[in-house]
Design brief:
8 helices, mainly alpha, about 0% strand, about 140 residues, about 70% helix
Length: about 140
């Protein structure tokens, strides 16, 4: 877990810090710049935490079961429940992710994420091979 100083920053200073952070992040127009800045600003642990949190909310919006999310992302069901309540109460992340739900690139990403290799314990080999070939075909042809 990342650590933070026990000394609290004043609210007005914190507001200015958030404003500066917004300016830095919102001025990125290409993925390479975004990745570079995030690599400079965030530790590997912080990047993983943020990525998992966004993925949890996205998968909850897609009505994926808690157990599946927990297994794939290696998070506790308590963490998933926490972000479920945030998703229900919040509006901002939900609005952004709703625009991504129809995005084919995101669909393909999560399809590969949940894919179980043929030969994995408890997997139907025939359907796993069929799914693997289907994913490869989509990558090559885009269909």
């Amino acid at each position: 877990m990342t650590r933070i100083s026990k000394y609290r920053v004043e609210d007005r200073v914190l507001k200015k810090l958030y404003s500066l952070m917004f300016e830095v992040v919102s001025n990125m127009d290409e993925e390479a710049r975004f990745t570079g800045i995030m690599n400079e600003l965030l530790s590997p642990t912080e990047k993983i935490i943020i990525a998992k949190r966004v993925s949890i909310v996205y998968l909850l919006m897609k009505n994926i079961d808690y157990l599946v999310i927990s297994d794939v992302l290696k998070v506790s069901s308590r963490t998933i429940a926490k972000f479920h309540s945030i998703m229900v109460d919040g509006k901002e992340i939900k609005n952004i992710l709703e625009g991504l739900i129809g995005n084919e690139k995101i669909k393909d990403f999560f399809e590969e994420l949940f894919f179980r290799e043929p030969g994995t314990y408890g997997v139907n080999w025939k359907s796993a091979w069929r799914q693997k070939f289907e994913i490869e075909r989509k990558k090559q042809r885009g269909i």
